[in-house]
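Table S5 (text form). Sequence records supplied for joint modeling of the two-component complex.
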Amino acid sequence: MNDLMTVVDWSRWQFALTAIYHWLFVPLTLGLSLIVAIMESLYLKTQSEKWLAATKFWMTLFGINFAIGVATGIILEFEFGTNWSNYSWFVGDIFGAPLAIEGLVAFFMESTFVAVMFFGWNKVSPKFHLAATWLTWLGASISALWILVANAWMQYPTGMEFDPAQMRNVMDNFWELFSGIAVNKYMHAVFSGWALSGVFVIGVSAWFLFKKRNETFAVRSIKVGGWLGLIGLLLTMWTGDGSAVEVTKHQPMKLAAMEGLYHGGYSQGIVAAGIVNPKKTWNNAEDEYLFDVTVPYGLSILAKHDLNAYVPGISDIVNGIDVNENGDTINTVSYAERIRLGKLSHEALRAYDKARAAHDEAGMAKAMAELKENYPFFGYGYFDSVDEAIPPVGVTFYSFRVMVILGSYFLLFFVVALFAVYRKDWLQKQKWLQLIAMVSVPLMWICSEAGWCVAEVGRQPWTVQDLLPTKAAISEISSATVITTFWLFAVIFTVLLVAEVSIMLRQISKYSKTNLEIDNAH
Amino acid sequence: MIPTQEEARGLKNTLRKIWLLYYEGFRGMTVGKTLWAIILLKLFVFFVVMKLLFFPDLLQRDYDTDEQRADHVREQLTRERN
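The corresponding structure-token record, covering 604 residues in total, follows.
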């Protein structure tokens, strides 16, 4: 058991490490490609060389990020096949289909249009080149769609039926993959990429202002980055709100963990800042927080868009207590009962296999009926106690606050940046503001990664919600292999990150010495 | 359907243009050369070193048929646990 948990834990750390590194590159690709497309459109519209220079500068940084980041996501697929082979088989074509589409789209769209975008200047018509730039952005965004649809399915498995003969889930409705969770998750991730890229453009431009080089170019870039970032952030907040409603419906335990809430209630407040009590468990009488500043009604509004709505806490969910839409207290299935039903589903599956081996049609039908009835709790059958089914509350709680607090800061950041940049020659003199803009760049990445921590740590212990916990999804491999590859990846990805940052800084420095202020506007 | 001579010439021209786009693009690169070196090295490390040495697809490697793979996963997921 100990070795199993070591393999599970190291595999989870490895997956987290590779996913976190991968996500360093992805949001910048999603947003910077759009900024480049907007700038090139402005160039074509105005025929002004200043927009061409800006387009080429940001396109170079996009290229560096794209080149270093490309294929970092493939490592995750390697891990599925090696570390998580039970999972890979169990999810069947549901997970495979979106990833296969993603592979094809990414390969054809990105390899074709990125090449035209970088090599096609003066070789294809300006309009064709612009189309390639927009299609690069579209290709990256479509790639993200399939990945996030697959991820959303793990959070809310739907559109499939379990086939005990094949021992895997079989897709029976492709369109159900586009659930509310999937749509909100996709838009949330993409729009956050716009916001992140807006901060990146403003931060880099602030460096030009700080060094008093290419100031007109920097101001122009801040205007584009500021507007796109602001729009992106507002849309991120809107879709984040949509995600919270969906999580409340389908993953109430995650919402409770995000809030560190054990005992819910009506008109539930939200903790704006606080420290969760590490000694608190679902079944003891400790206080939930060591310290908290609560905004009244906040969680009820976030979860159900209703001031007075009931929001259950972790202990309520474990005990099977919730409230329906009419406000009546109802009993859902308690976690102890879920574990019992999950074990019954395992027994039914074993009975099905025996009946199948004996060609006993009646036995198969009977076992199948029992399996089907209890399948929604299949994953709980792997637990010995309800504690195993509760996510790490502290990490989820703090990640959520880091994301929200930094997200709110960036709303202010964009408003101030836009206000400052439209005041004639003002921003150029505000060194402190330029410094804040530069320092804010890594904060935006922390904000973005914190969002993923909420989504992924908050859904633990599940690889597929309610159906397959990590301890069952894992392959029979040695922990030594996983530990070795963990450190290998840690080194490789760190080298890649250092390469990205240093090449980018070199390019920014090089461009700062060239004239990006050329203007032949008609 | 056999293409006419003119169609064949048009296709050849298009392919030549695509080839030149990539060829001249790669030749004219400055920072791109470093990036391509990183990309190629990275792909080598990922697909040759990591994939072949450390990340086999276990079910593909150890079993010949889907039925055997299903049986293995069944054994893994339905065994009695303590």
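Note: The two ends of chain A are 74 Å apart (CA to CA).
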